[in-house]
Amino acid sequence: MAEVKVFYDRVGNTLTVWFGDPHDEHICEETGDEVILIKDQSGRVIGFERLNFSIAALEPLRVAFETVAV
User: Fold this and answer.
1) Global pTM value
2) pLDDT digits (tens, 9 = 90+) for 11-64
3) CA 10, CA 69: separation in Å to the nearest integer?
4) Most buried of 48, 56, 59, 62, CB within 10 angstroms?
5) Burial, 15: exposed, middle or buried (Cβ in 10 Å; 0-12, 13-18, 19+)?
6) How do the domains of the chain map onto residue ranges?
């Protein structure tokens, strides 16, 4: 089973999601929509970071995933 890591930084207002090994990070590419794609050395996206992300202080961070066949 694949592992997804989700990190929310309330101080920096960022949400970072990894679906690959963070140690494989090689380059980042800004999409222009306050989203940064994190890529490995072969150019495969292994995660992303959402800038200016915030939720209410007392609201829990909820994450839902859906799988698709490729």
Assistant:
1) 0.81
2) 999 999 998 899 999 999 999 899 999 999 999 999 999 999 988 877 787 888
3) 34
4) 48
5) buried
6) 1-70
